[in-house]
Design the sequence.
């Protein structure tokens, strides 16, 4: 169980160097931080400590080969110090810089990846019925670094109270995933349920579970309920990451708000794919808990 969790937003869709600090978050100030880049992508640098020792995790890898590496250099984050790499799912805005990161990290740095996240052609269907894509995380990349790769659909224990969820069970009927996502299987293009979606759960002593999500394609409620199943005696303390709440139904939005309210969550930050309108609603509903997200932001949680 951790006694400190530090989360640095390395890649996100948004950047703002004029955000005021809060009790849990600090932000870059004008100067060199003005050279940070944003892109339609996602990556978190996570440091989890316990009794003076720590592990460092990179959760997702942005979309391009440039932005993550540039931002890491500006923020003084040395990729060679990483202990674990975790891919939330096999979409291009999350695996974009993975190959470059694997080349820059040491042999002891392990990659945790779901078996459905690579070697599959994925598409987005437009309203006119046409497709854009395909995007595919090349199987050759995983095979090249196979000695450092853990392929699993099940939960993984990284130590220090950190767990990768593995595939998340879908239990409700109002979180419908991404209806316009498709995947090629056995030569046929079929709806993609994105079963490779996985989150990170961190046990923070005296506080509860910190839930980190890449895109949350399994659904916010499904993900939080799965965390509760894994840690039935713990409360959900914080939810940070992409929540994919853009273009959802009013029913799903209200059910999400109800779930967060019932859990009594202390901190909430919707990043990346959460969507502007959903961010605005969540900020209004959970004003005291809301943490504005932006590239370079540092979020810190400490046990009592």
Sequence:
């Amino acid at each position: 169980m951790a006694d400190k969790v530090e989360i640095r937003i390395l890649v996100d869709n948004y950047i703002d160097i004029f955000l005021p600090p809060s009790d849990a978050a600090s932000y870059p100030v004008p100067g060199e931080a003005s050279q940070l880049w944003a892109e339609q992508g996602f990556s978190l640098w996570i440091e989890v400590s316990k009794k003076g020792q720590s592990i460092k995790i990179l959760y997702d890898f942005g979309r391009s080969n440039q932005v993550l590496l540039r931002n890491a250099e500006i923020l003084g984050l040395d990729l060679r110090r990483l202990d674990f790499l975790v891919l939330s799912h096999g979409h291009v805005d999350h695996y974009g810089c993975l190959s470059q990161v694997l080349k820059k990290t040491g042999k002891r740095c392990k990659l945790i990846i779901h078996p459905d996240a690579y070697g599959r052609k994925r598409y987005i269907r437009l309203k006119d019925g046409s497709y854009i894509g395909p995007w595919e995380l090349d199987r050759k990349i995983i095979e090249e670094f196979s000695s450092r790769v853990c392929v699993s659909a099940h939960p993984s224990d990284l130590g220090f109270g950190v767990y990768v969820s593995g595939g998340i069970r879908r239990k409700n009927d109002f979180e419908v995933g991404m209806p316009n996502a498709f995947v090629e299987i056995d030569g046929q293009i079929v709806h993609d349920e994105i079963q490779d979606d996985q989150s990170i759960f961190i046990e923070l002593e005296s506080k509860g579970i910190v839930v980190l999500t890449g895109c949350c394609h399994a659904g916010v409620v499904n993900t939080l309920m799965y965390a509760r199943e894994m840690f039935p005696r713990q409360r959900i303390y914080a939810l940070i990451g992409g929540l994919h709440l853009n273009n959802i139904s009013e029913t799903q939005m209200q059910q999400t708000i109800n779930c967060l309210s019932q859990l009594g969550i202390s901190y909430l930050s919707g990043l990346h794919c959460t969507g502007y309108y959903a961010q605005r609603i969540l900020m209004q509903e959970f004003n005291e808990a809301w943490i504005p997200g932006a590239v370079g932001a540092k979020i810190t949680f400490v046990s009592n």
The longest strand covers residues 4-11. Residues 47 and 56 are 5 Å apart (CA to CA).
